[in-house]
Every structure is written in structure tokens, then in C-alpha cells.
Design goal:
heterodimer; A: mainly alpha; B: alpha+beta; Dna Ligase, domain 1; 13 helices
């Protein structure tokens, strides 16, 4: 497979995943607000911090009304993480590999993009924001399904999975981090209180993990159990460890991945995954949840760089 | 139109033109009976609804190009009209034979002018016209392309005049585009008017990608054995025909590459893959000669591959179409094609040329300059409707401008009478009205010469307009070539 095509597949998958993640986070924050309608502007801050968007948000002078924030997160092209920006990039990457992906994959990426464009132009999302985010999520999920069902599970597919899983691992670690950082220690009386419960539940909901969490942990929602579920679970598909295990499988299926000594990408991802295999949640808290999540993000970025060097940036030797 | 009787239109006006669906007395042509009957049954409103569905489908398929409005790129579909153009079997067999003959003769012509140049020595075509053509590449004299084939993919533009006769308007021998629209239009039409389609007994076009792949594999270097690696070379995502490049690569199951994906290593053309470098045997290039290789042609080309041309000359890689074929679709050389056919094949051309005045001949130049208001003037090497003057529709200033251009460089211009292009009923805001069309069939030349049964019918959507180019208000229709 062409290096350029592999790179496009990888980024197409990352941007589709990111668009879905943004839709999830915004939607959950929107419903969280309904439980606590005062001081709306302040409540969007954690979400902006997740995407490292606070500075951009302030510099663009976006209004503080809920609708302004939703618009910023959904449609502003200055925001590289807006749903529209992500879908545009996913689509441009898809367009450059149309001959490699199945027609249905392209049509799914394209129609999700067109639906968001239509929402932006007609403004219907203002009346039904929840429905809008739901449409984006469904579009992305349909895409994932179409990929799995129509594309040969060969090399291109492994690049695609790699992109999707690394993106998702990163996103989950950020969601967890922000909750811990911004929402938890508001004052001792809140910890374990009903508001705290609602907020932890919202973290789980933003990764569609609430129901699955409930099946696993039957008592009150505790930070340790949420962190354990979202970081270390091997079966929940948005847990960081699950993503790392599957990403490593995908990486190991690529050409040259079983060479000795292993290339940088294999080494860095394998080391990160094995650390997760043997991590106790108490150790995570001992290190500090925020510090731990931060280091995970940095190491995921290093894995991404190594993949780029190993597979995408082949230099001519003559 | 649709409220007429089964064999006659009620309100449609075929006008003073050859109408592809109706006779002058509004009776339906035999070949269009099934189609007309179906349109009449479903009615105007339903026809419009289906037009809407077809457009939506094209948008979702992403068959779009960018237009710039207020500095913002807006994607638009290439306008598509839901009423197909029907070609009866007998008309088609003549077209097919004519195209086969023409491509055959031009192929011998290219071999000759890059070889012995007998046709020039015999004075059938003036040597200065061929050797002075912008796209004659003298440095390739003595070169034989793989398997002796020059023009693997040809798209010849045909028009039908008032009297129903089919003429060749121009030859496109370099990188003719549009075939992807033919294939996609067909898919859309099968969903849009399935009943009429089934009843009309339309010949399929879907095997084009397979035929194209066979054509390309035919010219692979022998060392490739039965397993040649074919690629499609595109200028990239921003090229207006990118969709087609990607579509053809996908349909053939081969790699779509850009110049930056290729490198020449030890004389071989290779692509950069995730497994390292992989050798390429055949390049279907959709990049003009000038941009192929900065070492051989334009040094500022960002699209090309350094060393590609040397590899081609050394027989390490095959190119389709061959370098230097542009001389044969030069619009001045075009005027000599009937003589070229006669000279090499000893036959008259089955498909006539449109009468053409060659401005380099003083007598003809004089006539052209005196009759600019009646003629269509074309520059020798432009396409897409550029470098063209449609005399009857031009302003006095535009005609003066062309008079100056012709005087300054007569070799570069030809002129033709304005043709009354045939019309096909087309869905418009006012209902169904006649619009002028041309036809571009595609011909593949590999082991033998194959003519696709159909082609791209381009339609001038503006009322009265004769310009079918998509850059100037043109759209397309599906072309139904019927079985015997």
C-alpha cells in the first residue's frame, strides 16, 4: 500500500472518531447543564479544556450563551476540533483514498458531512441540538459498521483501526482527566454527594459507558471504580486499555512489525500496553489521576510520531 | 409533451433541428417509443421528482467539482439531465466502424511521422504543418512505443447536423476525460427510469474499466509476465478530473498515485509503499506531457517524476497514452484526417469531418476573415471551449480580437461553419424543451480497437446555446445505444 494512502486512511479514521467524540462530549455537557442551569458559561470550561480550546475560544470572542458554545464546537472552522472541521478533514482524506476504501465507506463519510453542512446552513440544530449530536454520532457509527463490513481486513484496514483506537484512547483519557481536575474537589461536601454522582455518571455517559459500568459495578459511582473502568477494563471498547490492546494488534499486523529489533512504533505502543496490563488503580491515584492521564497522552503522541516516521515518511534514497 | 398520445408529442417543439427523439411532425422516433411511453405514463411531476433524486444521488456519490462563489469554494454536481439520448443500433454501427477506422489510421500516422515520414514526403499533409505543430516532439523520432500502440484511450467528439449526418468535430488523443460520468450516469439512470431502460434494450457500458485494464496490461514490459503492476497517475486532489482518476483506479483495482508517490530507482519506476519501494510496469497517466518529468520537460513541474521519461525510453515502464501524440489531435492536422485515412487505408473516411478552413492557406484565411460572423474559430491546441470564437454569438470587439490573432499566427487557427447541432428533449424550468447535444464515445486501442457502446452526451443547458462544455453551462445525459 502507498505510504500516502496509509497515512490518509489513518487520519480519516482519527478524524471520524474525533468528530464522534466531540459530539458525545458536547451532548453530555448539554444535558448536564439542564441539571444545573445557573452559571452556564463556567460549566463549559472543562469541556473546552479537554480539547485544549480555551485559548482559542477566548480569542475568538465567542459568546457565552449555550448556543454560542454549541456553534463553536460544531461548526466554527477556526476551531480545528469542531465537528465540521473534523468531518471536512476526514472527508478530504477519504477523497484521496476513494479508490482504496469501499464506495459505501466514502458515501457514508460524505453523507455525514453533507448532513452537518445542511444543519449549519438551515440552522435546524438550534431547535434540536440533542438530535443533531445524535445524528453525528449515528453517522460515525454507521461509518464504523460499513468499514468493518465492506473493507477487506488487510493492511489498509489495520491502519484505519490503528488511527481510530489511538484517537479513542486519547479522548477517553482526556475526559477522565478533566472531570477529576475541574469538577471533583469543589469542596468536601460535594464529594460523593448527589451532584458528584451526576457528574461521574455524565463522564460515563459521554463515552456511552454508563450502562456497561452499571453492569460491572453495582454500588455507588466512585472515582476509583470509574477510573478503573475507563482506564483498565479489557472488554469495554472505549476503555484505554481495550484500545491499546487492539491498537497493538492492528500495528502488529502491519508489514515489518514482527521484525527484530522491533521498530519504534511497536516498541513504544507495546511498552505502554504492557504497563496498562499490570497497572493497579490504586497506583494510578497514588501517582495522581491527572498526572497519569497527562503522561498517557504524551506517550500516545510519541506512538503517533513513531508510526509517522516508520510508515508514512519514506524518503527516497536515490 | 408528456400529455400527448403514445406516439406523438402534444406540445413539444422539435424546431428546425434534427431532434433525437421526435420527427419534425412530432411523431416519436421508433427507437424512443419505450422511453417516451414511460415518460408519458409517469407524468411531469414524477419526472421532476426523479430528476431531484438523481441529483441527490450524484451529490452523495461525491461526483462534484468546485466552483468559486464570493471566494468560497462551493461543491456542485456536474449538471445531469434525466432524459437520456437514444442512439438506434443502425446509427451506432456506422459510428463504431467510423471510429475504428479513424483511430486505426491515426495510429499508423503517428508511427509514420515519428518514423519514415512517408506521408510528408508524398506531400499528402504539408510537412511544415506536422513538424511545426506545438505538440510534435522531434526528439522522439525513431522511437516505437511498447507494442507499437500510441493512443490507448481516445475520446472523439461527434455532432449531428440538421440533416441527421454525424460528423467528427474533434479528436482527443491525449488524456480525454469524462468516461467516469458515462459509467456513473448509467448507474443513476438504471435507478431513475428502470422500466424504460429494461424495455429499450440498452447495451451495457459497465465493462469499460475491465477493457481499460486489459489495454494497459497489454503494453507492460515482458519482464512483468502475466502480473503487471498498473497505476493511474493523477495531478492530485485539486485537479478537476480527480474524481475520474480515482474512480478508474478503484474500478480497475489498481493504485492511484501522484508524482510524489513515485521515484525512479536503478532505472525502474517505483512507488513508495508501506513495505518499501515497489516496481511499476504501466502508468496510465492523466498528466500532460509537459508535466511528466522535470528532467525531460518543464523543469518547474511539481506533478511529475524525475527520471520517468528516461525509464520510458529505456522500455522499463510503459506510458498510456504515449508521449507526443498531441500532434495528431492538433486542430489543423484534424483538417487532413480524411486524406490521412485515404492515404494509409485506401478507403474513404466513414465519418466525415466538419468542413474546415485552414487559416494557413491564404485563400481560406481570406474567406475566414471576411466571414467571422458566420464561423466558429478554434485555436489549434486549446480545449474545454477556450481559445474559441463562436462568430454569430460574438461581439464586434471579440471578432476583431480574433481577426488580429489569426493574422498574427495563421498556423494556429482553423474555422468551421456554425453547425445546427441536433437536440434532445431536456427537463427545464419551463417543462421539456429541446437542447443541443454532442457525443463523446471512448475508444480503447490495445491488442485491438474497441469502441464503447455509448459515450458522454454533453448538453448545452442554456436555451439556444451550442456550447456543451461543463465550464460553460453544459451538462450531461446518459446515452442509450440500443441492441439490434
Amino acid at each position: 500500500m502507498l505510504s500516502r494512502a496509509a497515512e490518509s486512511l489513518y487520519w480519516m479514521a482519527r478524524y471520524m472518531e474525533r468528530a464522534e467524540d466531540v459530539a458525545r462530549i458536547v451532548d453530555v455537557n448539554l444535558s448536564l447543564q439542564l441539571d444545573r442551569p445557573d452559571n452556564a458559561a463556567e460549566q463549559w470550561r472543562p469541556m473546552l479544556a479537554i480539547g485544549e480550546l480555551e485559548e482559542l475560544y477566548d480569542s475568538l470572542g465567542v459568546g457565552s450563551a449555550t448556543e454560542d458554545v454549541l456553534h463553536f464546537m460544531s461548526f466554527r472552522t477556526e476551531n480545528p476540533s469542531s465537528i465540521l472541521s473534523c468531518l471536512s478533514l476526514a472527508r478530504e482524506n477519504a477523497r484521496s483514498v476513494r479508490e482504496i476504501i469501499s464506495s459505501e465507506m466514502w458515501e457514508q463519510v460524505n453523507s455525514t458531512y453533507l448532513e452537518v453542512i445542511d444543519a449549519a446552513e438551515t440552522g435546524w440544530w438550534r431547535k434540536q441540538p440533542h438530535r443533531f449530536f445524535q445524528r453525528v454520532r449515528i453517522g460515525s457509527q454507521a461509518y464504523t459498521g460499513v468499514c468493518s463490513a465492506t473493507m477487506t481486513h488487510g493492511e489498509g484496514w489495520h491502519f484505519l483501526r490503528l488511527g481510530e483506537l489511538l484517537e479513542r484512547a486519547d479522548e477517553t483519557s482526556r475526559i477522565l482527566d478533566v472531570k477529576y481536575h475541574f469538577l471533583l474537589p469543589r469542596g468536601a461536601e460535594d464529594v460523593g454527594g448527589s451532584l458528584d454522582q451526576i457528574q461521574w455518571a455524565s463522564v460515563l455517559k459521554s463515552v456511552s459507558g454508563y450502562e456497561m459500568f452499571r453492569k460491572r459495578f453495582h454500588d455507588a459511582i466512585r472515582p476509583a471504580s470509574v477510573a478503573s473502568f475507563l482506564l483498565l477494563d479489557t472488554e469495554f471498547p472505549r476503555a484505554v486499555r481495550y484500545c491499546l490492546v487492539r491498537a497493538e494488534n492492528a500495528l502488529r499486523s502491519l508489514p515489518g512489525a514482527s521484525a527484530e529489533p522491533p521498530n519504534d512504533a511497536v516498541r513504544l505502543l507495546g511498552r505502554l500496553r504492557s504497563e496498562f496490563d499490570y497497572k493497579a488503580v490504586a497506583e494510578v491515584f497514588a501517582q495522581g489521576l491527572h498526572e497519569f492521564c497527562d503522561s498517557v497522552q504524551a506517550r500516545l503522541a510519541a506512538v503517533g510520531d513513531a508510526i509517522h516516521r516508520t510508515y508514512f515518511a519514506l524518503e527516497a534514497s536515490s | 409533451m408528456t400529455d400527448g398520445t403514445p406516439d406523438r408529442a402534444a406540445t413539444y417543439d422539435p424546431g428546425e433541428f434534427w431532434d433525437e427523439m421526435f420527427l419534425p411532425d412530432r411523431r416519436v422516433r421508433e427507437s424512443c417509443r419505450a422511453l417516451h411511453e414511460r415518460m408519458r405514463t409517469i407524468g411531469m411531476e414524477e419526472l421532476r421528482r426523479r430528476q431531484g433524486l438523481a441529483e441527490r444521488a450524484l451529490l452523495e456519490l461525491g461526483i462534484t467539482f468546485l466552483v468559486y462563489k464570493e471566494e468560497k469554494g462551493v461543491e456542485r454536481i456536474f449538471p445531469f439531465d434525466v432524459i437520456p439520448r437514444v442512439v438506434p443500433a443502425a446509427d451506432w454501427s456506422r459510428v463504431e466502424a467510423g471510429l475504428r477506422q479513424r483511430v486505426h489510421a491515426l495510429s499508423i500516422f503517428l508511427t509514420d511521422i515519428y518514423g519514415e515520414q512517408k506521408i510528408l514526403k508524398d506531400g499528402v499533409v504539408p510537412a511544415e504543418i506536422v513538424l511545426g505543430a506545438k505538440n510534435y516532439r522531434s526528439e522522439w523520432r525513431g522511437f516505437t512505443p511498447p507494442k507499437g500502440v500510441w493512443t490507448h484511450v481516445v475520446g472523439t467528439d461527434l455532432v449531428r447536423d440538421k440533416d441527421g449526418a454525424v460528423y467528427v468535430l474533434e479528436d482527443n488523443l491525449r488524456t480525454p476525460s469524462g468516461v467516469s460520468y458515462v459509467l456513473e450516469n448509467r448507474q443513476i439512470m438504471k435507478h431513475t427510469l428502470p422500466e424504460a431502460f429494461a424495455k429499450s434494450r440498452v447495451r451495457p457500458v459497465d465493462d469499460y474499466p475491465q477493457k481499460l485494464l486489459e489495454t494497459l496490461r497489454h503494453i507492460a514490459p515482458d519482464r512483468a509476465g502475466g502480473d503487471a503492476t498498473v497505476v493511474v497517475l493523477t495531478p492530485g486532489l485539486h485537479n478537476s478530473a480527480y474524481f475520474e482518476h480515482s474512480f478508474l483506479a478503484q474500478q480497475m483495482g489498481v493504485q492511484l498515485v501522484e508524482g510524489r508517490d513515485l521515484a525512479v530507482m536503478d532505472g525502474d519506476v517505483c512507488m513508495r509503499t508501506t513495505r518499501g519501494y515497489e516496481r511499476v510496469d504501466v502508468v496510465y497517466r492523466r498528466v500532460d506531457d509537459d508535466f511528466l518529468d522535470p528532467d525531460a520537460f518543464r523543469a518547474d513541474s511539481m506533478l511529475g517524476v524525475r527520471g520517468l521519461v528516461a525509464a520510458y525510453r529505456a522500455g522499463k515502464v510503459a506510458l498510456a497514452n504515449a508521449i507526443g501524440v498531441g500532434v495528431a489531435d492538433d486542430k489543423v492536422v484534424y483538417a487532413f484526417v480524411p486524406e490521412i485515412v485515404r492515404y494509409y487505408l485506401g478507403e474513404d473516411a466513414i465519418l466525415p469531418n466538419v468542413p474546415t478552413f485552414v487559416c494557413v492557406r491564404p485563400q481560406e484565411r481570406k474567406y475566414v476573415l471576411e466571414n467571422l460572423d458566420k464561423l466558429v474559430v478554434k485555436a489549434a491546441n486549446e480545449s474545454g471551449g477556450y481559445g474559441m470564437l463562436v462568430g454569430p454569438h460574438a461581439t464586434a470587439a471579440e471578432r476583431e480580437e480574433f481577426a488580429r490573432l489569426i493574422e498574427a499566427d495563421p498556423r494556429n487557427y482553423v474555422a468551421q461553419p456554425t453547425l445546427a447541432l441536433s437536440r434532445v428533449p431536456t427537463l427545464t424550468a419551463a417543462g421539456v424543451e429541446g437542447r443541443h447535444v454532442d457525443l463523446r464515445p471512448y475508444v480503447l486501442h490495445g491488442k485491438d480497437i474497441w469502441v464503447m457502446p455509448g459515450g458522454l452526451t454533453r448538453v448545452a443547458l442554456r436555451p439556444g446555446s451550442l456550447v456543451v462544455n461543463s465550464s460553460q453551462g453544459g451538462g450531461s445525459k446518459d446515452t442509450w445505444v440500443l441492441r439490434d
